[in-house]
């Protein structure tokens, strides 16, 4: 299992280098909303800057290899950003936290028992 974790981390580093170096990432930041991806010892963190959004307007959807962040305004779909990942999310614990204007999505590096291919993540308010 340790070898699989190292492979996953190497793939993530390659993906981050590719993602951060691509000009389309800057264009997406301007057209939709800005995201950053971070790594800690225990989690991968996707951070989205969503000025003017309320928690009730946000949806975070997990697919097999991607996180989808959606904004709904006036009960209609407004914007979304799909964050493809170089590893499966099938057995990962995922939590989302919102403290205006920042949404943080934490993806555990350890495996959990989640077997679903697509589901919505509950967004918790973060009080600092």
Automatic annotation (TrEMBL):
InterPro entries attached to this UniProt entry: ArsA_HSP20-like (IPR040612), HSP20-like_chaperone (IPR008978)
Give the record's keywords alphabetically: Capsid protein, Virion
Under CDD domains, the record lists: ACD_sHsps-like
In terms of Gene3D superfamilies, this protein maps to: 2.60.40.790
**Which Pfam family is one of this chain's hits?**
ArsA_HSP20
Q: Which residues form the ArsA HSP20-like domain?
A: 41-106
Name this protein carries in UniProt = Spore coat protein M
Please name the source species: Parageobacillus thermantarcticus
The upper taxonomy is: Bacteria, Bacillati, Bacillota, Bacilli, Bacillales
């Amino acid at each position: 299992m340790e070898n699989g974790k190292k492979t996953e981390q190497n793939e993530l580093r390659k993906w981050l280098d590719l993602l951060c170096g691509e000009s389309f990432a800057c264009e997406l930041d301007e057209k939709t909303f800005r995201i950053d991806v971070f790594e800690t010892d225990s989690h991968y963190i996707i951070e989205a800057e969503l000025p003017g959004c309320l928690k009730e307007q946000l949806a975070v959807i997990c697919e097999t290899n991607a996180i989808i962040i959606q904004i709904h305004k006036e009960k209609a779909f407004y914007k979304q950003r799909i964050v493809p990942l170089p590893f499966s999310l099938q057995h990962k614990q995922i939590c989302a936290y919102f403290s205006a204007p920042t949404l943080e999505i934490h993806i555990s590096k350890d495996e959990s028992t989640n077997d679903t291919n697509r589901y919505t993540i509950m967004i918790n308010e973060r009080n600092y």
